[in-house]
Amino acid sequence: MAAPSALQPVFAHLKAQAENYRKELFDLLTIASISAKPQHAPDVRKAAEWTRDRVQAAGLKAELVETKGHPAVIAEGPQKSGRPTLLLYGHFDVQPEGELNLWTSGPFVPQVRDGAVVARGSADDKGQMLCGLFAAEAWCKAGGGLPINFKCLLEGEEEVGSPNLTPLVKEHAKRLACDYILIHDTAKYSADQPAITTATKGLVYMEIILNGPGKDLHSGSFGGQIANPATELARLLATFHDEKGRITIPGFYDDVAPLSAAEKARMAKLPADDAEFLKEVGSPAIWGEAGFSTVERRWARPTFEVNGIYGGYMGPGSSTIVPSRAGAKVSMRLVANQKAEFIERAFEETVRQRCPRTVRLEVKSHARCDPYMANLESAGIRASLEAVQMGFGKTPVLIREGGSLPILPMFKQVLGADSLMLGYCLPSCNAHSPNEFFHLSDFEAGMRSTAALIGLLATV
Amino acid sequence: MAAPSALQPVFAHLKAQAENYRKELFDLLTIASISAKPQHAPDVRKAAEWTRDRVQAAGLKAELVETKGHPAVIAEGPQKSGRPTLLLYGHFDVQPEGELNLWTSGPFVPQVRDGAVVARGSADDKGQMLCGLFAAEAWCKAGGGLPINFKCLLEGEEEVGSPNLTPLVKEHAKRLACDYILIHDTAKYSADQPAITTATKGLVYMEIILNGPGKDLHSGSFGGQIANPATELARLLATFHDEKGRITIPGFYDDVAPLSAAEKARMAKLPADDAEFLKEVGSPAIWGEAGFSTVERRWARPTFEVNGIYGGYMGPGSSTIVPSRAGAKVSMRLVANQKAEFIERAFEETVRQRCPRTVRLEVKSHARCDPYMANLESAGIRASLEAVQMGFGKTPVLIREGGSLPILPMFKQVLGADSLMLGYCLPSCNAHSPNEFFHLSDFEAGMRSTAALIGLLATV
Lengths: 460, 460
Description:
Number of strands of chain A: 19
Mean pLDDT of chain A: 96
Strand order of the largest sheet of chain A: 1-2-6-3-7-18-8-17
Helix content of chain A: 25-40%
Largest interface: A-B, 83 and 82 residues
Strand content of chain A: 15-25%
Oligomer: homodimer
Radius of gyration of chain A: 24 Å
Low-confidence stretches of chain A: none
């Protein structure tokens, strides 16, 4: 553990610079770096240049790296041999603004309201990315230099699925080599409960299409004589859960890492209320795999969802047809140590086996990504727990994430490094919605946490 | 049976007038009386006036009767007390033309090709309606007058579901009183096999909607914790057929009239080939209720079809959501003596019972109509068999229809009369498609058949 004494001037610097850092955050937030909209490509580049310059000013060697899409920024601090290496990953691109009339102020005109800066990207991820950068700067300017090897990989395509990140990381694998990737793109557990995220789910996203007659047919003249693709689709989809809500694909659970007693106990202790949860989502009842709590189902159990279903006449009123085809988009979320490739194959084999021969089956694969789980016993996780405690003044909880982050297993595979996910914003920060916000107190506690992490890692 | 001698001058008249009748059919076919398109309302009226005038000229007293929509024509011949009464039902409105570039000639520019007149309405129903009218005229002009009471009810709203027919028939019930309704709006069994249609199916058309969360949710953050409406919809729909293809709604089959041995034998004798049928519809295999042939399933067994299914993300690619709702349009075709009202109630009760409480269920009713079956032993059916034999020179077969015709149970209920369905066009006449056609030889054989029926009914 870093002596708190070494941290004191770093924390003091952060406190002294709070006003300036806030202004600089506002600066970056005025750039409408929406990666999804081609007309905003110059803005994404502008944000990349702003970031490169700011990283350089902080005391690192920064470079703007071109990709097939929007550029990225790669940077390195001075080499500290014998010390661990931390790679800060973040992104300076943002989601589209969405419905403008739902914003209470311009999405790219940052405003402070109720102690939070409101703007697109304030939390996701400009504000949180800057927590990492300003923490590093504090060490450079006030801590006698960075006590570890510190690198940055900041991209401009996260909100469009990071299509060029894997080749970029592969190409610069040596330069990006590290012990841990530091990611500030997650969230706290709740307003007063900081958290460290330790796992994300994998994803297998498929589409099945059942083809029957060559065209829609009159249901009076042809009904009951040939298989109805919509009926067969329903019968097929109905087989994927048993009465206990378990997924019936053979071998599906074979590789699932069971919850450790310790993690089970930690999840049970989290403030979570099914009635509150139902009120929030609007469903009439809880549903899920028997034998697990809602939190366990969300974080630690694989799921199977129908994301969309279609076929035949879907307009208003009625049309008496036997549909020529019907289809469904289905996806499975995976947990450690399931393999997306195996699950995709198992799903397809099961569908092909169960689909009746009275229709013709098409199977399409849309997306595939492995789950990720950090080693909870690593020095990095131990240091993260302590660092967030120092930054927020409250012991963080270890949580997981129900969503998928393909970059985590990619980092693990290409760089061999685990990710430390320290999220500082609220889970309800409207990350992809109007009125995205980031509390300034969290911005500051976040900078302190990352600064503490840098110091703590220097001593492991 | 009418002495063939009495028919001879009538048949001779039809033969002599063949060229003129064809020209008059062409005349009516040039009127674009599309009832579905408001801008064609004047054309529907023009067709009504043409029809009224032509009925009048044939020797009947004809009147144009206004409705809340397009006008109808009601007509009566001279009263023949002690003789049966035949009410010719037909319609002078037509389907929209559909895709114009698929027509080989203008839909309202009748042309003769391969012995058939090609035009919208040639078969459905202008050409067939005129078979009835010209047959009656032949009796008036050449047969010494109509030998029975002959009436007409010709409407202009059949192709939009006859929304004003029931009130019209109720209002004019006395004037329309009859022993049989004569309908030329069906088809032969095949090109060389004339037919008489004796039954139509009933219909119950419903929509069920399963509501889950208040909005679409992230499938990673919320999947596996609340019921997925699309999954539950699939599980629900999967329960409506058992392994033998039988419908599982309690009481569903209670009122089904079993097929008589005679009818079963007649159906078995019909030229019907499953392999040909599959080639025509493009499905890979036959499917249906165990223990029945394809023809029996089509005509004599009730069915349950999913006409449409929808929910969640239905666009290209993928979207990782738990849908907030999912729905299906389902319809049941009923046979004698099922009651649509009972089946609708039984369906709704079953759905409510089977739908899990983890979603909120909505049930909507879109359409309801009873099945219809003629008394196969009636004098009218016997006369029809003989009449078509005379007109076509080939013994007709008794067939049923898989579709629904709400007007038949309505006529039965309001007028107490059975319908005689003598269809003269081909089943493949493109009735609602481009290049609708009606063979001129069938037009002429049809006129002879109806003329013979009029003569035969005079003697029962």
